[in-house]
Design goal:
Helices cover 24% and strands 33% of the residues. The strands form 2 sheets. Strands 1-2-3-4-5-8 form a 6-stranded antiparallel barrel. A two-stranded antiparallel sheet has the order 6-7.
Length: 152
């Protein structure tokens, strides 16, 4: 899948990250291309394991419908985050709290089964590459980084 950003062959094997679903001292979960195909990723280690490398993730394919829904929900978050950073939105108005944005809530329900870790998820290692400034941390095309994946 080709994003509006350069494709992986032009970026040393680094591919688009479309959505960030979890962050703790770095990307922990989301949706990214792996070999040009959208995949969910989730960190293997949990937050309570300091010192463990966070470069190993479970990955599983995401269909085109899930990708479209994830990107739609991401755009809602990015719009809120822009208002939050401008000082016109509060943390309480974050759409992820539920009951704030009807469409965001609907997408959460629709996406729940797609986000569940399947028994046949693969384990892969990842290297992150941060986009150079002035690209914002959050953009409708995805967070401000790309990923290069390899077998664990």
């Amino acid at each position: 899948m080709v994003d509006s950003r350069d494709d992986a062959s032009k970026d040393g094997g680094f591919e688009p990250v479309y959505v960030e679903l979890d962050w703790y001292d770095g990307p922990r979960g989301g949706l990214a291309d792996i070999g040009g195909v959208p995949h969910y990723f989730r960190a293997l280690n949990d937050y309570a394991r300091p010192g463990n490398l966070d470069d190993e993730h479970f990955v599983w394919p995401a269909g085109q419908t899930a990708l479209a829904w994830e990107r739609e929900q991401w755009a809602i978050f990015v719009e809120w985050n822009g208002r939050y950073e401008a000082g016109t939105a509060t943390p309480d108005s974050h759409p992820g709290h539920g009951g704030v944005n009807i469409r965001y809530d609907e997408l959460t329900r629709l996406l729940q089964p797609h986000r569940m870790l399947p028994a046949d998820a693969r384990r892969m290692k990842v290297e992150w590459r941060w986009d150079p400034p002035p690209r914002p941390r959050y953009h409708t095309n995805g967070p401000g980084y790309r990923a290069s994946w390899r077998p664990a």
